[in-house]
Amino acid sequence: MASSALLVMDVQRDIVAMADDGSGYLPRLRRAIDGARLVDIPVIYVVIGLRPGAPEVSPRNKVLTNIVRAGLFTEGAPGTEIHQDVAPRQGDVVVTKRRGSAFSGSDLDLVLRARDVDSLVLTGIATSAAVLSTLWHAVDLDFGLTVLADACLDTDPEVHRVLTEKLFPQWADVLTVEDWLKAIAPR
After folding, report:
1. More confident residue, 53 or 163
2. What positions does the domain Isochorismatase-like occupy (predicted)?
């Protein structure tokens, strides 16, 4: 029997401030988190965090170099905190990553294997960054995958649509939060 975990990726204060479009994203994500907890699916939070001075960022990494210049994602800075509307509970695992994928530079694979998790439910910001990178990495690690399309968010709605409607269905089940909650509801 498959053992699942819900990944809540990069829903940090600064990222939410940049991406939230007022469409009710955080309440939908909260419903997914609450639904997972109701049926004992572990909720694992993933945050991007860079050490002060960003020694792990190469000047060849265009994306992260720009992030460092903007002063974003330094571990311990207030903007790197998980948004209070979806904050972890006591005992929830919070994994810190150093790149786009939740697996890159983190101990996520170790945490999942220790819990015998073989299936992931992906949520987060941004669809074109954390979600896409993590999905590809998880495919290579042979995880079963579900993407909650409306619990993912991107600053470009068209990119989000293309990924969730055309690309992701090749490797994952793509559902809405409501459809997923119905599927996991106790019978």
Report:
1. 163
2. 4-179
